[in-house]
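Narrative summary of target 7.
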Amino acid sequence: MGHHRGMKVFDAPIHVHYGFLNLTSRDHEIDPGHERDGQVNGLCGVATPGRAHLVTGLHTGRVPLTVEWLASEPGPPASTWPDVIEASVELPQVCLLSTFDVFEDVTLGASGWHRLRFHARGMDEGHELDTAIDDEAPDAYLLQLWPAAPAPDAVLRVGSETAQYWHDVARGLS
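Modeled conformation, tokenized:
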């Protein structure tokens, strides 16, 4: 089956608290504070095996999130996403998408090493708002994954001060 455009494996607003999301194997170990060791990007920490630790601009509230699984590497990211990073993570076919208190099963098209591309829009606005109780969050996220051998993480595009801050944290500059 050719899923050239990708298969949506999650597509809904998800409630974040403390401004993070995780995509993990079920038995992953948490090593807080070391998620970004040795990385150049700060939006997705993959230093802990079997775990992608993703940052959102909004601290608390529901942020729109789409997770797509693709059979192969997509073309360049759309210009509508000002912040884009890539990282590599090893995941089982059925993994766990979680926030502070939300846990959702996500089924990928395959298990093993994946390249992950995390797209963000409106991070500064989300960070400024901090908490969205009933309102639509100003930030939104797209997470794409496809099978690929492990490679160093990369920052493809920086468009917000919030993302730049986290990249600086990863590099030990902030």
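The helical segments are 123-129, 161-170.
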